[in-house]
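Kindly review this record before class:
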Amino acid sequence: MPLPPASPAPLAMQRPPLRLSCVVPAYNEAANLETFLPALYEAVRLLSAECEIVLVDDGSKDETQALALHMAERLPLQYVQLSRNFGKEAAMSAGLDYARGNAVLLIDADFQHPLPLIAEMVQLWNSGYDMVYGVIADRTAEGAAKRRGTQLFYYLMNRDSRFRIPENAGDFRLMDRKVVDVLRQLPERNRFMKGLYAWVGFKSAALPFVPDARRSGQSTFNLHRLGALAFEGLTSFTTIPLKVWSFIGFCISLAAIFYGVYITVETLIFDNPTDGWPTLAASLMLFSGVQLLSIGMLGEYIGRIYDEVKRRPLYVVDQHVATHALPVAAPGTGGEGAAPAASRPPQA
C-alpha cells in the first residue's frame, strides 16, 4: 500500500530533552491494562527520563478504576475517570488536556499498536517532525465490507477538501506540544480527531505498521459504530452529502421533464391513452421519499449546529488521581499550554 505523501523533510533542529506523555483512552480494558501499562512504561522510560501515562477511563464498567489506582502506586500515572462514556474522541481530548509533556503519544490499550514503533516515532520527532502517525499497512484480516467502506470513506473525505486526511491513518501518533496546544484550542464539540489532525497541518511523517492481535476482549467498534464515526467525519469536514442530494434532485427533475415531454407526445400525436393513476402514485412516492431524505440530511447538519451553540463541555471528570506524574510547567516551556475554558483541567 503506498504511503501518503509526507511533509518535506524538516531542517535539522535541536529538540529539548524529551518529556513524554502517553495518553491511553480505555473503555472496559481492565484485562489488557494489567499487562499493557507496565509494558508501555518499560518501552518509554528507555526513551525519556521524564515520562508519564495519562489513563483516561471513558466510563468503564469493569475493574479499570481499581486497577488504575493500584498501578498508580508504582507507575508515573495520571488516572482521569470520566463521569460516563463520552466516546473515544472525547476521551482522547481529555487525555490531551491533562498531558504535561513536550511530546504526547496517543496509543490504544489493546496491544494492537506496536510498542517498538514508539522509538522510531521519537527519532523522527527529534529530527524535526511535529507529528508522526502510524498507517495501517495491511487490512487483509478485516472483512470485505469494512475494507470497501473504509476506501469509500477516504475517497469522499478527500474529494471535497482543501486538506488531505491520510488513508488508513489512525490515532496511534506522536505529537509535539505545539500541535497538542492547537488541538486543545479548537472549539468544536463534535470532534472527529482524524480530521482535526490533518486540519492543523504541521510537518508530519507516516510510519507503516501491521496491527497486532488483541490480547483479550473484543473491540467495541463494530460496523455500526464505525459507520456512525464515518458519518460524523463526513458531516464535520465536508458538504459532500448535501451536494449528493442536490445532484440527485437535479437528475430526478431532469428525468421528470423528459418523461413529461414523452407523455405529452404520446398522448397528442400518437393518441395513446395514458394510465394516470399508477404514474401519479409512483411519482408521489418517489418525490416524497427524496424530499424526506433531503430534509433528513439537512437536519443532520442543523443538529450539529444545535450541539455546537449549546457549548457543553466535551467531557465531565469524576475523578483525577496523579502520582509521580510530570510537573506542570509554565506555558511556553514545553509543558502544559492553554486549554479551552470548557475543558481546562485543574492545576496540580
